Amino acid sequence: MIFKYLKIKYWTTAAIFFLFPMLIQAQDEGTTKGMTEEDFKTIKTLKIKNLEKDTYVKFDEGYVLDRYELKKPYAFNFADGKERKVYLYNVYETEEMNTIGFLAIYSNADDGKTYNICIPGVGADKACWGLFIDELKYRGEEEAGLLPTVAFAFSKELSNLLYAMENGMEAAEVSAEEEYEYCFPETALVTMADGSQKTIDKVNIGEEVLMLDRKLKEVTTTKITGIDIHQRVEIQIGTLYFLPHHLMSSSSVHLSEIFELRATLNHPVITTDGIKPLGKIKSGDEIFYWSQNDQKLMKYQVFHILKNGQKVTKVYNLKTEGGGFIADGVGVKVK
Q1: Which residues touch 206 (CB under 8 Å, ≥6 apart)?
Q2: Domains of the chain by start residue, with CATH
Q3: What is the reported pTM?
């Protein structure tokens, strides 16, 4: 058993890395080829000049690194103030362009160091797995933060793969919906239990807010149990534009009659057809809107969605006992 000499703290990490390439290559319609010990030793020395821009790189040594699903890197900010990133790449041999494994490139912005973690694919030589385990152990001891960040990245991708396989989807479809955060910009207005509103950055744990009970189609109160805050260099915010039904056919609409909901494109919104990510809502869909003026729940119709507008650096999300709350007047779920 290849893990028998592995210390217990590395078991979970190694198991995740072992399963990920197996599932990826099980979905891959192309040909796979086993990684050799020589391949492993060479791949872990490959260097990409610009990790942010270089998504496809061919090396004279006979390998191609292709950014997995063209994804942005996973970014982490620990309490020590150091930013760490993990970039994921498919590894191909150039002779017949067969997949032979995967590469996780870990970077530490504080000292500029990068570490290659090579993950053998299906049919790899047994020696590769022994080298892989050694690499996990020694690199993990050498660089604080490497193991948890790389393990998180692969755990997330493994979760996406399993979900895709269970639901007859492609991994990329899940990835498109499953980004790092489900959140709102700090300007989002949360409706409190007394009907007043606060921006989401001003609410507190323990306060009561309004939420939409989707089954009963009525508004109830719930308590805030947690507040998530995420900060990145750049976070894309989508905007949903909607109107009361009677204005959809009007020849002229005043700006004050147009309503907006701003959130990450993957945040779940309650519509009359069920719960949908904001980015999947289309013109003509109906959403539930809590009118501050009338103090009642109404159905409004979406007429436009802007997917690439506002960009922010900090976003917020709430955890509530009831699993939802009202943001910018719209019933949303807690992911």
Answers
A1: 223, 224
A2: 8-177 (no CATH), 189-333 (2.170.16.10)
A3: 0.50
pLDDT single digits (tens) 211-261: 998 776 789 999 999 998 887 777 889 999 998 866 665 655 566 668 899
The DSSP H or E segment spanning 314 is strand 311-320
Query: For 296-303, which contacts have Cβ atoms below 8 Å and span 24 or more sequence positions?
Result: 297/212, 297/217, 297/218, 297/219, 298/244, 299/245, 299/272, 300/242, 300/243, 300/244, 300/245, 300/259, 301/242, 301/243, 301/244, 301/245, 301/248, 302/240, 302/241, 302/242, 303/241, 303/242, 303/243, 303/248
CA–CA dist 13, 62 (Å, integer): 29
Q: What φ, ψ does residue 108 adopt, rounded to 5°?
A: -115, 110
Question: Taking a C-beta distance cutoff of 8 angstroms, is the pair 119, 104 a contact?
Answer: yes
Give whole-number Cα distances, 185 to 198, 201, 241, in Å: 13, 9, 16
Backbone angles phi, psi at 310, to 5 degrees: -70, 140
SS3 37: helix
**CB neighbour list of residue 51: distance below 8 Å, 6 or more residues apart:** 73, 85, 87, 105, 107, 114
State how far the Cα of 204 lies from the Cα of 50, in Å rounded to an integer.
42
The residue length of the chain stands at 335
Query: Which residues pair with residue 118 across a beta bridge?
Result: 103
- CA neighbor of 59 nearest in space, from 85, 91, 30: 91
Nearest to 267 by CA among 177, 159, 169: 177
